[in-house]
Design a protein that fits this description.
This protein is α/β, with parallel strands linked by helices. The protein has 4 domains: 97 residues, no CATH class; 87 residues, Nucleic acid-binding proteins (OB fold (Dihydrolipoamide Acetyltransferase, E2P), Beta Barrel), CATH 2.40.50; 196 residues, Rossmann fold, CATH 3.40.50.300; 158 residues, Rossmann fold (3-Layer(aba) Sandwich), CATH 3.40.50. It is 40% helix and 19% strand. The protein has 25 helices and 23 strands. It is globular, with a radius of gyration of 30 Å. Helix 12 packs across helix 13 and helix 24 packs across helix 25. It is an enzyme of class 5 (isomerase). This is ATP-dependent DNA helicase RecG. It comes from Mesopusillimonas faecipullorum. GO terms for molecular function: helicase activity. Keywords: ATP-binding, DNA damage, DNA recombination, DNA repair, DNA-binding, Helicase, Hydrolase, Isomerase, Nucleotide-binding.
Amino acid sequence: MPSQAESAPRNKLTPLQQRLQRLGLQHEQDFIVHLPLRYEDQTQVTPIARLRPGQASLVEAEVLQADVQFRPRRQLQARVADDSGELALRWLNFYPSQQKALEVGRRLRIWGEARLGFNGLEMVHPRLNQASGMLSSTLTPIYPTTAGLAQPSLRRLITQALARADLSDTLPDEVRRRFDLIPFEQAIRCLHHPSPDVSLASFEDHSHPAWHRIKFDELLAQQLSLAMARAMRHSQKAWPLDGHDGDLVQRLEQAIPFALTGAQQRAVAEIRADMLRAHPMHRLLQGDVGSGKTVVAAMAAAIAIDSGFQVALMAPTEILAEQHFRKLADWLGPLGVQTTWLTGSLRTRQRREALESIANGNARLVVGTQALIQTHVQFEKLGLVVLDEQHRFGVGQRLELNRKGEEAEAAVRYMPHQLSMSATPIPRTLAMTFFADLDVSVLDELPPGRSPVVTKLISMDRRDEVLAHVGDEIRQGRQAYWVCPLVEESEALQLQTAVDTHALLAQAMPDLSIGLVHGRLKPDEKAAVMEAFRQGEIHLLVATTVIEVGVDVPNASLMLIEHAERFGLAQLHQLRGRVGRGSAKSVCLLMYQTPLSMVARQRLRAMYETNDGFEIARRDLEQRGPGEFLGVRQSGQALLRFADLETDGGLVEQARTLAAEWLEQQPELAQRHLRRWMRGRQDYLRS
């Protein structure tokens, strides 16, 4: 079957081939590294009398009775027996085929987890098979699958692939000895068909030597890809941008109403050095909320504009894009730089004018949302791409904007320089594993005048106290945010919660001006509310998470997050970063509803214990995995499937060492290894 999936035309796939493709299974090599999630021990039959509650076992027994009961609900019930005792079976959802299999007097093999029911020991929703043939001689693998693809079918296809595929080793004997690794074929066969005498615990926690080998191979492929992506980028051409055409950088630095911090000056110098080179910059500017990334981006833009090129800045939300547009237009507009705004909500005439100014080059700086990557957006000469909150874009979207600047001259293709910004600091293990091909600048100091935010946890039972505190704070001349909770991830319910909360607060504090902003407001309505809040005309802003990033109101000193236990850790930290932007003491109140789950308790504790974005990011990585940091979930590309960043840091170091050696001394070994593990996914590293 793997070979059929490989050869079938893309638009004529059978239903089975479509299901396999959803799992990424097209070639024989894909099948052999599609490894089990867990195992079942069906190598021996357990007498009913020796079953233990909570333990999955295989029994062989005769059907004594079977019928459909209607109380307390419709269900299929049966009783079976062997020489040692009886066992009840029960299905709440069942098929005619299961009823037919439970013919009285028939002997069956039954696999399931025993538990104590009202009538003694029982199995709920067990699997049934005929009691014939030999028992399995190995543990039964359970694979990741998709709807419509049963485990027996998938096991059969993988076994076929193992019989045909090339299982030769991509690591020479010397490398295996050096890093204490078992041969690839031995590891793969062991993982697909482990003998019953192996330690099941070592398979489940991925500590078995077979898993150790597979994790090393995966990390080696990844490190090779990242190193090759860096080498490829260094082989690409970009226009060196030295800012020689004018003095915009100096004039901008004199015009902004504050002095750059040492970290900002260092980042600007690193970016300037990158943009002077004849290959594309690929730099990540990371800094905690409020660290001043926008002004660094403005300086980078000034260098590109002074060099005669255009700059595009893309942000994931309209509110964030508008915040950048306002700041950049305020700073650069008086210096003669035309800054253009492009989003999907522009009226037809506005859009046409914006597109014309981008195409003819009058728009030197273009700020917008994903509207920037639409096909009809054409730049005259794009030299720098800036991506804010880059992990919130799909990989494909980042690639599309990059390609807007591709330009051919004398048969040479030139790429734009790229600066990515993130307020989600990247933990060291993640940076080492996924961003090894990036140059990174870190803003590790806050601009002067920023006050640290005090975080307090408070139960929803004390809501009246909170209301009184919010009112007192505002009447002293401050402003506040009241963020409404996520409700079962439903935008409609979240919106209703915000509308209801706004009405309740307006009734409780009639002397105050209370605004409301959410994702379904029209852009001009949203902009009007935000402007009124900036100007101090609105005292308390009730909002959904649309204000998570991109809102800068120095007079706002209180952030209240209702049902904080429903938010992710990174999201809570971003929301907290909306206050503490002025000199006044700022407070973030996290209101929570008991009882708290263990994960929610960990999140709230982390928020209470630290304001350090790097520590928040580390804890968030522990809880959620790397997907959100990378922005690859939208792309459909797999992350690390087998290695674990928290426990396999030593393997990452070994893989990096070997990758560097191979690319310098034995590139043919690197290519062979990549053919097995990457299968064309390297292009996404370009983004």
